[in-house]
Each structure stands twice: as C-alpha cells, then as structure tokens.
Here is the input.
Amino acid sequence: MPELRTDWLTGRSVLVAENRALRPNEFAEGSFAVLSASIAPLGRTLSTCPFCAGNESCTPPAVYEQCDGDGNWRLRVVPNAFPAVFNLSGAGNANGTDTAAFPAVGLSEKWQLNIPIPGVHEVIIESPFHAERMTEVSQPQLYEIIRAYATRLRHWRERESLCYGLVFKNQGSKAGASLTHVHSQLIALPFIPPSVEAEIRRAAHFFETDEKCAYCDLIDQERTLGSRIVFDADGFVAFCPFASLQPHEVWLMPCEHRASFELASTSDLKQLAVILHRLLAKLESVIPHLQYNLLLRTAPWADNYDAAYHWRIELLPRVNSLAGLEMAAGVHINPVPPEKAALQLRSA
Ligand SMILES: [Zn+2]
Ligand SMILES: [Zn+2]
Here is the structure.
C-alpha cells in the first residue's frame, strides 16, 4: 500500500508507491535520453565540444586551473557564460543578467522583487579529454575534482557578502545538463535559500533540545538499523534516506561530525574520491543509462553552524520526471522503497 513518508529534518514529503513501478517502460532501456551521439574514445577530444582541451576560446578565461608537470591543464574553472546570478567570478555577466535590462513594470513595489543578486556561478570542467561520466575519469582525477570543489568553496567563503555555497552536477539531460562533457557547477549566494534555512532551523532546534547534531543522530540510527545502508567503512557512510525523493537516492556523509566539506583534510578527500567512484559505479550497474544530480551540501557561511550542521553529498538519480503533484504540492512519488534500493546497491 502506498505510504506518505515525511522527513522531519528536510521537511520533504514522498509517496512511496511501489505499484508505480509496474507502469510500462519505467526502467526500460531506451526510455532514457541518449547522453551523446558521438562518444569519443578515452583520452581523445572533440573539436565540437567547448569544454575539451584545444577549445579554451569557447569559454570565458579560467579563474582557476590544475596543471600537470608539462603545464597542460587537467581541470579548469571558468565563470559560467550564462550565469544565474550577477557573477562576481571573473569578468562575468558577458551574456546578461544585468537586471536593469529587465525592468519589471506594472506591479507595486511590494510585488516587484527584481534586485540584482551579486553571487558566483562557476563551471568546473573536470577533464581536458572528452569524458561524459564521472566514472570514466580515473580515481586520482576524481580526487583532483573533489579538491577543486573544496578549493573554490574555501575561496568564496572568505567573501563577506556571500553566505551560502553549493556545488552540484547535472548528469544527463533529464538531470538538467545541456553539455555532455564532464563538469560541475558552483553557486555562491548572498542569502541562504529558503529550503536550506528551514532545514538548518530544525537542525539547530534539535541541537538545542537534544544537545547532539541531528545528522550524527540520524547516522547512528541508520547504522543501527542497517536496512538502508549501502556502504559503511573508512570514515564514511552511504545510505538511501528514509524519504528518498527518487529511486536509489543515496546520501554520503562523514561518520565523524564535520560541518564544512571545504575544510575536510586531504586524506578525507582522497578517501571520499575512492568511495564516490565506487558508489557511482554501483548506481550505474543498477540503473541503465544513469542520469543524476550530485548535490554537495556544506554548512552556510553566514553564521556559525559548526555544531548543528553536517555536510553531505546527495546522489539523486533522475528516473522519474517531475510532474504535476511534485510541482504543485512539493510531494514526490517514489516507486522503489529505499530499503529495497539499498539492498540492490549493497549487492551491486
Ligand atoms: Zn568535451
Ligand atoms: Zn554531525
């Protein structure tokens, strides 16, 4: 029988409805958009891809690079050419977002919120070669990617006007990607987004009443229960959350209490690269043509959340499109119980 699950911490609501999996073509091969018609062999570049080595003029100049011994770049960070904010990164804003160009007319001041948002929108180009999946890059390269996430977040957290940073990856068109070459994005904002603020308020309240980090408590309970655990070793735990929004959603967290991802030690980041590589391979083996969002959530910079917040990576496979119920009511439908998903991933 379908059941409504509500996650107390995040406030998310999910209808776990296993019968929905019986619909035709739900997991059928071919029902997913093909990632690319022209996959280049490993170590090769495509002349048509703006993120491949040799096509650097197709992007704004890099604001950060990691290079090999010969001076060739292995990873580049460039300002997003089409930023969602008034970009503080690089020269930025070459393609607009100057809100003065879009005056909102006809509404009273109360309704009209078109304030320029000075923030950061960067693209992390994760390989000079044309790879389309994070599992195609080597584990050492995956560590370099994770190190770049931490380096750029540390860079922007020093800027007083910014109070929240998020790194995310859209893998596949269903997840919102428009280019196939492996890349992630970093957004830094001068405000804490409402859904994040609501979660932090609950976590801070839990800390006040229970004198413990809510996320540490959640980890303890999941480890004791065991049925939703996917991986638990080497200082990290991965589990399918109780109210998973989509089939096979996985949260990856450090077992020790850590609020800020960007302050993690080198050895922790190296370990994380190994585990993330393994988790993505597991997901790819369970879900053909995996498309997903990777969300890296770290403590906001606005205040001191060291005690109450705990960083995590969410891997959110995009199997079902967001439809009317999700858009109208914020209630998601998930046809695969997280306990079953965790079992599949453990044995993958
Ligand atoms: Zn490419
Ligand atoms: Zn904690």
